[in-house]
Design a protein that fits this description.
single chain; 356 residues; alpha/beta; 11 helices; elongated
């Protein structure tokens, strides 16, 4: 039974082989014709492509420069600074990639690494930590990408800087305090956060002046981390500790100074204590106009942003900068000229949607 089944299977296989061979023989001529037809179509296509080669429109290369920009955080001052960056990029037809470091130095370094990986034409950085950019600068040099720092002066080299002379700003308000109150007195100093050149350099500037005026004593100095709330609490503690001995409050920025002003107002001391700060923000102009605060130093955030883009574009094009580091003017603002800056802010608010 098994041998008969094997014979039957062999017979079926033989028949199937014959059928397949017959089918192949029948299809061979049409297959060859199809191959010839395909060859003809291929030849015609090649001929048409050759005929139309000179008529084809090649896509234009996109020569627009690309700038990567990382800012330390977002609040009123950098909003204005960012507007300057954006406006200058628009005027120069430059593509801008913007990121917020959210006051995180490690996050910012990662953002800068991403810019390098994206092969941008230039990088602008308003650093969270002025001591962190050394390795990034070396990476930028290897990649041929210029690195421009904005607003915070780095402790290690970069290709260019645009922003304030914070040592000068500190000297200006300390000297104004002494010129107004006389050769003797006692003050407290509200500092910004560690890692910012504004904190380091403004403090240096204040100390430069105070060291030359031995009649002035610093009762206390401490960081309020750029926070109005922390400065309010800090000043309340100083009022409790030193009371009427405080003749003046020197603050590294306007925001913290507003906290100090609130504490002094609550204690009934605002008319007896001079308050001075740096940045010249819009709110502070009205506080000065109302006679609550005496002095601020105006730092033009919009101009800083524009200058940084101008430097980045020039370097990306291979140009040599006439001035590698550009320190903007830092005019003193008092009740006598604050209206000029109030008017300036009104103009800018009308032009910058983010401030409205």
């Amino acid at each position: 039974m098994r041998r008969s089944r094997m014979r039957f299977i062999s017979l079926v296989v033989a028949v199937m082989v014959c059928v397949v061979m017959m089918l192949i023989g029948c299809q061979s001529p049409s297959t060859n014709e199809a191959d010839d037809s395909a060859a003809d179509v291929s030849d015609d296509t090649a001929a048409n492509e050759s005929d139309n080669e000179n008529d084809a429109v090649e896509p234009e290369e996109d020569d627009k420069l690309v700038i990567g920009y990382s800012v330390y955080a977002i609040f009123e001052f950098p909003i204005i600074m960012n507007a300057g960056v954006e406006a200058e990029c628009a005027e120069q037809d430059v593509e801008l990639i913007f990121v917020d470091a959210e006051d995180d130095a490690a996050k910012q370094l990662g953002q800068l690494d991403n810019f390098i990986a994206q092969e941008v034409d230039a990088i602008i950085c308003a650093p969270v930590d002025i001591n962190s950019l050394g390795p990034t600068y070396e990476k930028c040099k290897e990649a041929g990408i210029p690195l421009v720092t904005l607003n915070e002066y780095p402790s290690t080299p970069t290709d260019a800087y645009a922003g304030p002379d914070d040592v000068l700003a500190g000297e200006l308000i300390a000297q104004k305090m002494i010129d107004t109150l006389g050769p003797e007195g006692k003050c407290v100093i509200i500092q910004g956060s560690d890692g910012y050149s504004a904190s380091v350099d403004r403090d240096i500037g204040m100390e430069n002046v105070l060291k030359e005026n031995a009649g002035w004593e610093v009762l206390a100095k401490k960081s309020a981390h750029w926070s109005r709330e922390e400065a309010l609490e800090l000043t309340e503690n100083w009022i409790e500790a030193y009371g009427d001995d405080i003749d003046a409050v020197l603050s590294h920025d306007d925001e913290m100074c507003q906290g100090a002003n609130q504490a002094l107002q609550a204690a009934g001391m605002i008319d007896d204590v001079m308050t001075l700060s740096i940045d010249g923000m819009r709110e502070t102009m009205f506080v000065i106009k109302d006679g609550i605060q005496e002095v601020t130093v105006f730092q033009d955030a919009l101009l800083e942003g524009r200058l940084a883009v101008q430097k980045a574009v020039a370097l990306a094009k291979g140009e040599t900068l006439d001035e590698v580091d550009t320190f903007i003017d830092m005019p003193i603002v008092t009740i006598d000229n604050c209206q000029e800056y109030i008017d300036l802010y009104e103009e800018r608010i009308a032009a910058i949607p983010a401030l409205q």
